[in-house]
Amino acid sequence: xxxxxxxxxxxxxxxxxxxxxxxxxxxxxxxxxxxxxxxxxxxxxxxxxxxxxxxxxxxxxxxxxxxxxxxxxxxxxxxxxxxxxxxxxxxxxxxxxxxxxxxxxxxxxxxxxxxxxxxxxxxxxxxxxxxxxxxxxxxxxxxxxxxxxxxxxxxxxxxxxxxxxxxxxxxxxxxxxxxxxxxxxxxxxxxxxxxxxxxxxxxxxxxxxxxxxxxxxxxxxxxxxxxxxxxxxxxxxxxxxxxxxxxxxxxxxxxxxxxxxxxxxxxxxxxxxxxxxxxxxxxxxxxxxxxxxxxxxxxxxxxxxxxxxxxxxxxxxxxxxxxxxxxxxxxxxxxxxxxxxxxxxxxxxxxxxxxxxxxxxxxxxxxxxxxxxxxxxxxxxxxxxxxxxxxxxxxxxxxxxxxxxxxxxxxxxxxxxxxxxxxxxxxxxxxxxxxxxxxxxxxxxxxxxxxxxxxxxxxxxxxxxxxxxxxxxxxxxxxxxxxxxxxxxxxxxxxxxxxxxxxxxxxxxxxxxxxxxxxxxxxxxxxxxxxxxxxxxxxxxxxxxxxxxxxxxxxxxxxxxxxxxxxxxxxxxxxxxxxxxxxxxxxxxxxxxxx
Length: 595
Description:
This is LVIVD repeat-containing protein. By secondary structure, the chain is of the alpha+beta class. The protein folds into two domains: 437 residues, YVTN repeat-like/Quinoprotein amine dehydrogenase (Methylamine Dehydrogenase, Chain H, 7 Propeller), CATH 2.130.10; 78 residues, no CATH class. The protein contains six helices and 30 strands. The chain is globular. It starts with 26 loop residues before the first strand and ends with a helix.
């Protein structure tokens, strides 16, 4: 079965001809506008390799916590147009994946250069090596304090918070480590092995850290999530596949696994929890793994889906708000290469949409690739993002490194498409001949990014009415949605009704909308846009809503109940009966709130 194929990225898109520059690059935007941008603070203001690049974001109250491979920054966004730096903490912690919970900030540490004392200069003595999760007290945002280094066998590339469903004082961190297990001489109990079923083998598991919030200094590693047992190699894709691109001809085959090492996955790049429905979606190389976390100390695998023909490195997942769909992103090339050129394969480096049936079995559906050809100087590939809370639609905003910020509509699992973007020109000027083959020949293969500056949006997230993008090289951008035929003012206003006190993108919150006229009108706008109901009826419903909104109390409730009854009769003859039914339900809910 073949999926509907996307065309190759277009070279006619406005993003394809932008002026280069670090701080004066050309800008293209659609359905969003730049509210403010702040440069990296002085301690991190360098483009040297990956040492000082910004990474991910976490949110709480009026603060944004922006991680960096060399520490983190805390921004006060009380006035989004003029963010104020609360503090900057130098602490070598590649890659610094952050999570905020109350007054505690957690940072992932992986790689050989992280020290227990946060210092730079590298690790001279193995006993000083830090690989795991750092815990900071940020009760005073102007003076964060390191209170604990939790060491793990494989370190922590990323981590995900899972709250205890039975004890508000306990949280768990599911840790994804990409490196091999550390030698036991460095950390007791660590073991490299080739048997996924061996409970003493450190490789084939997600580490789990248990944190008591009243004593975070006592945080400890507990038995991990052994979700890889029985998963063999994925082989070639046999179902839900795009035809192999002729551009792939001549590619080198995948390297063979190490002798005696099973060829299935043994780690994950990222895992995304959805605690409200007790599920976790794990992005584990060739596999999308769905995990039951109803008991966070005893998680178990529900399902695993593989597609090695089109996905070489599953990176990050996200759930639709109703939990019936998944997104899996693919970081083809590791984020440092130009994978969004006109010549790039559409089968790699984008998103795939997956549906879940009643038994939580996964089925792969559409692919989505950034529909704009980027330059050879721009590292570009699908990366981190989160859901935008527009009722009735599944919208995902994400960073594509120097491909900028993009919004994907995946409401129809078979037809994902872009509705908005914000992008800058490349940081570096073009080479002598900006043709993929010629430019490729000029690249320095011994330097990450081929000698080009590595930058762009690490991740973009909707947070309480605005979109925040962590720019690896340039700083941080704050964006605002703007209305158009593809995203109406009512839909934007309805999204702004969903607010949280805290947000960690890889611990996904459930979004609930209050009863409101803009919520009802969002569904009406969608019916007009998709021609899901006859125009005479949508016009009549619009007029009736306007009349009801002019009333108050029981009169408004009566008018809305009468309208809901009329709309209920429209379901049978509507092209989009399901949306009409939902709109009728929202009208009744609004009537109940009006009494």
